[in-house]
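Continuing the series of single-chain predictions for the mutant panel. This is the parent chain; the variants come on the following pages.
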Amino acid sequence: MSRERPPEKPSFISTQVERGRYLFLDLNPPAEKEFALVCAGREECAPDYAIHRRGFRYRALEYVAGGRWELEMGGQRWELGPGAVFSYGPGVTYSIRLVDPRNPVKFFVDFAGTRVPTWLRAAGLAEPRPRHLHQTRWIHDLLEQLLDCANLSRAAARRLGHRLGELILLRLREDLRFAGDPHPESYHTFERVRQLLQTDYLRFHTIEALAEACHVTPAYLARLFRRYADETPFQYLTRLKMDHAAELLLHRRRTVKEVAAEVGFDDPYHFSRVFKRVHGVSPAHFRRGQ
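Parent structure:
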């Protein structure tokens, strides 16, 4: 299958880069388009890396994966390290320079479209200031997947790149919406509970047992999930168990009764009802459908 020749690097790509991976999809999107992923890149920067711009044509998102950097934007100055993320665009003057060249890696994604400012605002990235991601594995994975689109045909790269760009912005909105919470201890408690559930969900059969293991009351646990999640703690626990059940049904030769028992259900008929409520099909239909 023939592939279109990838476009040349545009002039805004810095020459102070020792190694770079890039994806160029649509450098001149229509002004009326709602969403377009313009380009993306991963750059291992030279020790003298420094950029100063007075405005930028696109809505740009940058993520610091390594090194120490100094960012000046909106009349303020910050030192950035791994996990920092910030945005700039038309009318924004900013400067960034490398101050510690150990592992000097950053990613960028450039967007265009009428919906993009709203999505950046929802993530708290419309203001000229950096934010910090406490969990970074997901953004590494998504950005690397995005850059891998350069190996696809142009049509496939545009389709997948568009979806991955949307996913990055949506995930940033979720991860950054509680950054700067005036009561961060409550969010840390929620994260501690969530991480315990993710690693040990088969251990718990009741929310009371989970609350006791986390040294909080069931009522406080319910308030945490009401504040920081879109589901109750019991719904979250049930979803994890049903995802595990689906994996067992898909890849292991277990009966429905055996799977039900493994995820904590004595009654396989009750398990089947819960499985269908979560996944939309019964365990038997799920196995046959796969």
